[in-house]
Write a structure and sequence with these properties.
- The structure holds 2 protein chains of 2 kinds.
- Chain A is α+β, with helices and mostly antiparallel strands.
- Chain A contains 3 helices and 8 strands.
- In chain A, helix 1 runs parallel beside helix 2.
- Chain B is of the alpha+beta class.
- Chain B has a single domain, classed as tRNA-splicing ligase RtcB, CATH 3.90.1860.
- Classes of the chains: A alpha+beta, B alpha+beta.
- Chains A and B meet through helix 2 of A and strand 4, helix 7, helix 9, helix 13 and helix 15 of B.
C-alpha cells in the first residue's frame, strides 16, 4: 500500500495519507509531511526526540501530532525520517522520532510549513484501510 | 449562481447558509475558479452573526476554511471571531515605499542593490535575525508594535502615519501568548520568511490618475520598494494555538461547523476575547517586523548608491494588512454599527473622506496596494465609496494563484525561470531555487485582469502601475 499521494492544491501543499491501522496512518502522515519539507530522502537518524500531542478526537490528534513535529522543525531546525508510535489513544499520542539538523549543503532546499490545517479533517475507513486528507499552509 | 452584473455573481442562500455568497469576478474568470472555492464561500455564509454576505474578491482561490480573497463581517453581539478567517500569517501585509530616484539612476546597479538587501535582511527557511527577544522585550513588541522599533533607535518615525492603524493596534494581551508562540517568534523579528513573501525594487511604469498620484507623491519612472511579509512563526503559532481552543469553544457554544478550520467562538465570549487579544499581539509583531526590514532596506540602498537619507528620500506611501480581523464601524441599514471584519487575503480599501485616513490622503482615498507576480506588474489603486458600501471597504490583495505549486514545477521543467526573467530586465535572488519556480509568473492570474475586475466592480480606482527590476524571494 502507498504511504501517501499528492492532492494538487492551488496555493498550498496537500496530500492523502493511507494506513492499514491508526498507528501506521500517524507514521505515514509524518513521512508525507517531511517528504514535502525536504524531498532528498537523505535525512540521517542522528538524534531522537520524544513527541507528545493531545486532541479532542483522533482526527484533531492527527493534525496536532504533525504540528508538534513542525514546531520542532521550526524552532530547533531539525528534520525527521523515522517515526515510531509508542502510545496512541483517541486523545493522546506519544512517539519517538529520529532525525538531524537541517544542513543546506546536503539537504538542499527545505520548505517552510506555516502549519498543518484542520481543513477537511476527517479520518475515513475505506475497505481494509484508513485514510485522511491533509492540507498544509505554506 | 446568479449574475448580478458583469463583475459580480451571487451564490443564493441554500441549506444552512445565513446569507448569500457574493463573488467579484467576470464570467470569463468564473470558469477557472475551482468548485472548492464556492464551497468555502458557502461554508463561511453559515457562521453565526454574519452580516449581508460572504464575499470573495477577484483574486479568489482555494484556501483552507475561508477562501483566499474572503471577506466576512460579523455582528458584535451575536457574531463570531474565527482564527481560520484570519489565517496563520496574522497581519501579513504589504508596505510600499517611494524614493526620490528615477529608474535611470539605479537600473544598472540593480544586482548590487538586491545583493546588498539580501545580505542585510534574513531570508528563507530557518533564517533568524540578530534580534533575540527576551520575555520582557517581546511583551513590548506585542503591545507597542512599530513604536518598539523606534524605542530601539531604528526605523523612521515618519512612516508611522502611513501605516494601517499607525503600526500599532490596541487590545493586545501578552498574557494570552503561549510559550510555544514566544519560542517560535523570538528569533524571527526582522526576517522576511519564505513562500510568497518578497522584497521588490521596481519603477512606476504607468500613471492613470495624475491628481491622486501627485497627492501620493508618485511620478513616472520613480523607483519604489515593496515589502511583503507578516508575523512569521509567531503568528503561525498563535493561530495554531487558538484553533485548538476554538475547536473546543465551538462545541461549547453549539456552533455547527461545516469544516473544522472554520472553528470559532462568539466575539464577546471568553475564548473570543482571548483570541482577539493574542491575535492583536501578532498584528503588532508584524508591524514591527516590516519596519525593521524597511530600515535594513534603507541602509542597503544608502550603502550601494552612496547617498544620504535626504537624496534617497525613502518614504512610506502606505502599508496595509491582508490577513486580519478588526473592529470597524460601518453603516448597516442607515445606522452606524461596530462589526468584526475578517479579511483573509483581502485588503482594506477606504474611500476619500474616510476618517481613518492620514490627513494627506483625505481628498484622495486610501492607497490600495495590489502586488502581482514577480514578472509582470503591481498596482497602486485607491479605495471607493462603493467598496465601503458593498464589501465593507475591501478589495483583492494580489493576483491570486492559478497553478498549484507542483503544477508550477511541472510547467517549469527544463526551463531556467531566473534567466527568462533576467532577459526581461528583472533580477531575481532567492534563498532557494524552488521558490523561483513555484512563484513563476505563469503560476499567477494576470494581475491586469484581476485589477480591471476590481475596477469594473467599482471597488477601486487605478492610480499607477509598477514594473519590477529586482526581487528577493524566500
Amino acid at each position: 500500500m502507498k504511504k501517501f499521494t499528492e492532492i494538487d492544491h492551488t496555493a498550498d501543499i496537500a496530500f492523502k495519507v493511507f494506513g492499514k491501522n491508526i498507528e501506521t496512518l500517524f507514521e505515514n502522515a509524518a513521512i508525507a509531511l517531511y517528504a514535502h519539507i525536504n524531498d532528498t530522502g537523505n535525512i540521517k537518524e542522528k538524534r531522537s526526540f520524544y513527541v507528545f500531542a493531545e486532541g479532542t478526537d483522533q482526527d484533531e490528534l492527527l493534525i496536532n501530532w504533525l504540528n508538534e513535529l513542525n514546531f520542532l522543525t521550526s524552532t530547533k531546525n531539525y528534520i525527521f525520517c523515522k517515526f515510531s508510535i509508542i502510545e496512541l489513544s483517541n486523545k493522546f499520542v506519544k512517539a519517538e522520532v529520529k532525525g538531524e539538523k537541517i544542513n543546506k549543503l546536503r539537504h538542499g532546499p527545505t520548505r517552510e510549513i506555516k502549519s498543518v490545517t484542520y481543513y477537511k479533517n476527517v479520518i475515513k475507513t475505506i475497505d481494509k484501510h484508513i485514510e485522511c486528507d491533509i492540507y498544509c499552509d505554506t | 449562481m446568479k449574475k448580478i452584473n458583469d463583475f459580480c455573481f451571487e451564490i443564493e442562500k441554500e441549506k444552512k447558509m445565513r446569507v448569500p455568497g457574493r463573488i467579484f469576478v467576470t464570467e470569463n474568470m468564473l470558469s477557472s475558479i475551482r468548485e472548492e472555492c464556492f464551497e468555502q464561500v458557502k461554508n463561511v455564509a453559515t457562521l453565526p452573526g454574519i452580516i449581508k454576505a460572504s464575499y470573495a474578491m477577484p483574486d479568489i482561490h482555494w484556501g483552507y476554511g475561508f477562501p483566499i480573497g474572503g471577506v466576512a463581517a460579523f455582528d458584535l453581539e451575536n457574531g463570531i471571531i474565527s482564527p481560520g478567517g484570519v489565517g496563520y500569517d496574522i497581519n501579513c501585509g504589504v508596505r510600499l515605499m517611494s524614493t526620490g530616484l528615477s529608474k535611470g539612476q539605479v537600473s544598472t546597479g540593480i544586482k548590487k542593490i538586491i545583493n546588498e538587501i539580501y545580505k542585510n535582511v534574513p531570508v528563507g527557511v530557518g533564517s533568524t535575525s540578530n534580534i533575540n527577544l527576551n520575555l520582557r522585550n517581546a511583551e513590548k513588541v506585542f503591545k507597542d508594535g512599530i513604536k518598539w522599533v523606534y524605542s530601539q533607535g531604528i526605523g523612521n518615525e515618519n512612516d508611522m502615519e502611513y501605516i494601517e492603524d499607525q503600526g500599532c493596534v490596541k487590545g493586545a494581551i501578552p498574557e494570552n501568548i503561549s510559550k510555544k508562540a514566544f519560542e517560535r517568534g523570538r528569533r524571527q523579528l526582522g526576517t522576511l520568511g519564505a513562500g510568497n513573501h518578497f522584497i521588490e525594487i521596481g519603477y512606476v511604469e504607468s500613471i492613470y490618475d495624475k491628481k491622486v498620484a501627485n497627492i501620493y507623491d508618485i511620478f513616472k519612472d520613480q523607483i519604489m520598494v515593496l515589502i511583503h511579509t507578516g508575523s512569521r512563526g509567531f503568528g503561525y503559532q498563535v493561530c495554531d494555538d487558538y484553533i485548538k481552543l476554538m475547536i473546543r469553544a465551538a462545541e461549547k457554544y453549539s456552533i455547527d461547523l461545516p469544516d473544522r478550520q472554520l472553528c470559532c467562538a462568539p466575539f464577546k465570549s471568553e475564548e473570543g476575547q482571548q483570541y482577539f487579544g493574542a491575535m492583536n499581539c501578532a498584528v503588532n509583531y508584524a508591524f514591527a517586523n516590516r519596519e525593521i526590514i524597511a530600515h535594513n532596506v534603507r541602509k542597503s540602498l544608502e550603502t550601494v548608491l552612496e547617498i544620504g537619507p535626504r537624496d534617497l528620500n525613502l518614504k512610506t506611501i502606505y502599508e496595509i494588512a491582508h490577513n486580519i480581523a478588526k473592529l470597524e464601524t460601518h453603516k448597516i441599514e442607515g445606522k452606524e454599527k461596530q462589526l468584526v471584519i475578517h479579511r483573509k487575503g483581502a485588503t482594506r480599501a477606504f474611500p476619500e473622506g474616510h476618517k481613518n485616513l492620514p490627513s494627506k490622503y483625505i481628498s484622495a482615498g486610501q492607497p490600495v496596494l495590489i502586488p502581482g507576480d514577480m514578472g509582470r506588474y503591481s498596482y497602486i489603486a485607491t479605495g471607493t465609496q462603493k467598496a465601503l458600501n458593498s464589501t465593507f471597504g475591501s478589495v483583492c490583495h494580489g493576483a491570486g494563484r492559478l497553478l498549484g505549486r507542483r503544477q508550477a514545477i511541472r510547467k517549469a521543467k527544463g526551463r531556467d525561470i531566473q534567466k527568462e526573467l533576467e532577459k526581461e530586465g528583472i533580477f531575481i535572488k532567492a534563498f532557494n531555487n524552488r521558490s523561483i519556480i513555484e512563484e513563476m509568473p505563469e503560476a499567477y492570474k494576470n494581475i491586469d485582469e484581476v485589477v480591471d475586475t476590481a475596477v469594473g466592480a467599482g471597488l477601486v480606482k487605478k492610480i499607477a502601475r509598477l514594473k519590477p527590476l529586482g526581487v528577493i524571494k524566500g
